[in-house]
């Protein structure tokens, strides 16, 4: 199992594309894996014959675990520059320039690699039920055995001193729900849960502003091809942040770290989760320059294949929940970001025209900005939304 990203320690096998005895070419995708970020392919280092497959579909393996064994000729190994290794868990490897990850090429048969259960890491959110605020060492040890977080026991009413949840309370609760229908959470869902838990350890607040879209929609209709509406919002967001970079700062101790680049993510709904591919240097590129890159990243994200170059490092995210018919919402920023901009559905509304003394129809969308209140105050967030609204009234400049 190769290193599929800086923060990825394991991946789940979702498809084996070859069988033992198959002949494979160099750089052929032989295994498809799922990480907490995307679906990726594991490819071969060189041509050969699949001698042994250790990996099993549905199982998760740590970085460095041998997934399979290739039988290769000396000439092929020399040509590709690979060296045989023992058939045992290998040290983590990095493939900075390769598009896919690689099969190892050891000699001979070996022992079955260790299977690593899927895990999630991060800061738990204190459970919001009386008694769950304090967890005894014994209770903590039992929760660690079961892989539970504090938030997972929030439904349990404690019987201990001061309403404390005891190990007996936990065991009774687990027995109670044992016969309930259940399903295993996917790595994607666990990743979303972990991110939201860590995000919620901060004081988050949201502000909203109705923004007229008539000028933008009229301008967009004249374009060929028509850029997605979200792309205009994403571009305007980046420009507004570039004008006030402190708004996108990140608080570390007693310092606010300011962005060195205005890389903005776009939330893409996929099966059982959300992926956020990142567009780089959005403040310095016009909508026309971003168009093809944006469509390509969204298309790849929907297939759960986000390129490594578009993973992580964003300073803010844009999410268009208006595509689901939602008028407003309170999105939560990623743990590594201070801001997220939500876009509500465009609604035709009557607006009073004082000059004409009559109501006129206008299309409005509610923009919602959720922010880390340690870094940004309501006034600063409001000014950012107002500036964003101004920029949207001049779409030709975007």
CATH architecture of the largest domain: 2-Layer Sandwich
Oligomer: single chain
Percent of sequence in beta strands: 15-25%
Number of strands: 19
Q: What would you report as the Rg, rounded to the nearest angstrom?
A: 25 Å
Query: Quick one: CATH class of the largest domain?
Result: Alpha Beta
What is the CATH superfamily classification of the largest domain? Answer: Chloramphenicol acetyltransferase-like domain
Q: What's the shape?
A: globular
The computed structural class is alpha+beta
Q: Whole-Å distance between the termini?
A: 43 Å
Helicity level: 10-25%
Description of the molecule:
The protein is an alpha+beta fold and 398 residues long. The chain has three domains: 10-102, RNA polymerase II/Efflux pump adaptor protein, barrel-sandwich hybrid domain (OB fold (Dihydrolipoamide Acetyltransferase, E2P)); 120-182, no CATH class; 190-397, Chloramphenicol Acetyltransferase. Helices cover 24% and strands 23% of the residues. The chain is built from eight helices and 19 strands. It has helices at 74-80, 137-146, 167-177, 187-199, 214-221, 229-243, 287-302, 378-392; strands spanning 10-16, 23-24, 29-34, 39-43, 48-53, 60-62, 68-71, 101-102, 204-212, 250-252, 255-257, 264-266, 268-270, 273-275, 278-279, 316-319, 339-343, 347-353, 358-372. The strands form five sheets. Strands 9, 12, 15, 16, 17, 18 and 19 form a seven-stranded mixed sheet that branches. Strand 3 and strand 4 form a beta hairpin. Mean pLDDT is 84; it is low at 87-132.
């Amino acid at each position: 199992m190769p290193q599929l990203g800086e923060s990825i320690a394991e991946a789940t096998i979702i498809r084996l594309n070859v069988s033992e005895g198959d002949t494979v070419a160099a750089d052929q995708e032989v295994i498809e894996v799922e990480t907490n970020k995307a679906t990726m392919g594991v490819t071969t280092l060189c041509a050969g014959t699949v001698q042994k497959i250790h990996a099993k579909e549905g199982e998760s393996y740590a970085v460095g675990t041998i997934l399979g064994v290739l039988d290769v000729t000396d000439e092929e190994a020399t040509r590709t520059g690979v060296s045989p290794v023992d058939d045992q868990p290998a040290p983590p490897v990095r493939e900075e320039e390769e598009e896919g990850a690689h099969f190892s090429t050891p000699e001979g048969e070996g022992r079955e690699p260790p299977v690593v259960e899927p895990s999630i890491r991060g800061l738990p959110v204190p459970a919001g039920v009386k008694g769950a605020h304090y967890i005894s060492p014994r209770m903590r040890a039992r929760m660690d055995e079961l892989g539970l977080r504090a938030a997972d026991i929030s439904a349990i009413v404690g019987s201990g001193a001061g309403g404390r949840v005891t190990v007996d309370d936990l065991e009774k609760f687990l027995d109670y729900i044992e016969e309930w229908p259940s399903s295993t959470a996917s790595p994607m869902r666990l990743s979303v849960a972990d991110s939201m838990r860590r995000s919620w350890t901060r004081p988050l607040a949201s502000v909203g502003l109705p923004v007229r879209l008539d000028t933008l929609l009229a301008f967009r209709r004249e374009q060929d091809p028509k850029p997605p509406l979200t792309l205009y919002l994403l571009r305007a967001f980046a420009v507004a942040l570039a004008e006030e970079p402190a708004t996108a700062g990140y608080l570390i101790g007693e310092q606010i770290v300011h962005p060195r680049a205005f890389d903005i993510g776009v939330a893409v709904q996929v099966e059982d989760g959300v992926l956020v591919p990142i567009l780089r240097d959005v403040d310095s590129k016009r909508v026309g320059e971003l168009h093809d890159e944006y469509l390509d990243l969204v298309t790849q994200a929907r297939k759960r294949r986000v390129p490594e170059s578009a993973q992580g490092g964003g300073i803010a995210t844009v999410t268009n929940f208006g595509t689901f018919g939602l008028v407003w919402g309170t999105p939560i920023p990623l743990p590594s970001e201070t801001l997220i901009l939500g876009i509500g559905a465009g609604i035709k509304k009557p607006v009073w025209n004082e000059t004409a003394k009559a109501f006129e129809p206008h299309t409005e969308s509610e923009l919602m900005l959720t922010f880390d209140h340690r870094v940004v105050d309501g006034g600063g967030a409001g000014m950012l939304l107002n500036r964003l609204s101004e920029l949207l009234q001049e779409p030709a400049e975007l």
